[in-house]
Amino acid sequence: MNKLLLLTSVLLHGLLGISQVQAQSPQPVNSAAVASMHNDWLNRHESFNAIARKGGIDLLFVGDSITEGWRRNGLAIWTERYAARKAANFGISGDRTEHLLWRLQNGNLDGISPKVAVVMIGTNNTWRNTPEQISEGIAAVVDQIRSRSPNTKVLLLGVFPRGEEANTPTRKKIAEINALLAKLDDERNVFFIDIGERFLLEGGTLPKDVMPDGLHLSATGYQIWADAMEPKLAVLLK
């Protein structure tokens, strides 16, 4: 084989090798749907596991700081509405979908089979994931609850609005997420409700007396949440 043919053969094999590697390259991983632990909350995670092991939970709230806030700004309403219903709050500030997924896979559901699980998660993913990725992550959370506790009804809440002004990129992104989440409602085991508009003034402004920082609820905000959710929740808890 002369040098020209040899060089041509080497180049062709190289190009074929590159094309094969490209064809075999895996799809990008969706971080929102891959369970991930968070070192900052391991002690709290274990405390939830201990609560779960005691059993006796009929109503479970899972999520991020918005759910966690039932222990603070929402405490009076929680005591009035949910304490007697054997409720537990497994919300942790800062959680994204992947963190909640990890917690559910690692003990938060062990030993319990709640009548209803209220899921509020996803807002902390809006800075790093697409609406499709976030909805996939939330779907993974719902699937985890359903697979580990088949008799539990999931009350899935749309991601709440954030930011004072209407029609911002974040608001539009949340609307896209919620449109995708609505498709998870099967009217048998998973029930989706979007109560976001209940927090807003006419024109879409988010008032400070409802969310002082444009994200976290005041006592007024938790009252709105409780009132908006109650009709569906009461039916599911029967």
Describe this structure in words.
The protein is α/β, with parallel strands linked by helices and 238 residues long. The chain has a single domain (44-236), classed as SGNH hydrolase (Rossmann fold), CATH 3.40.50. The protein has eight helices and five strands, in the order ααβααβαβαβαβα. It has helices at 3-24, 42-54, 65-68, 75-81, 97-105, 131-148, 169-181, 219-236; strands spanning 59-63, 87-91, 116-120, 153-157, 190-193. A five-stranded parallel β-sheet has the order 2-1-3-4-5, with helices on both faces. Helix 7 links the parallel strand 4 (153-157) and strand 5 (190-193). The termini are far apart.
What does the secondary structure layout of this molecule look like, with pairings?
Layout: H1 3-24, H2 42-54, E1 59-63, H3 65-68, H4 75-81, E2 87-91, H5 97-105, E3 116-120, H6 131-148, E4 153-157, H7 169-181, E5 190-193, H8 219-236
Parallel strand pairs: 1-2, 1-3, 3-4, 4-5
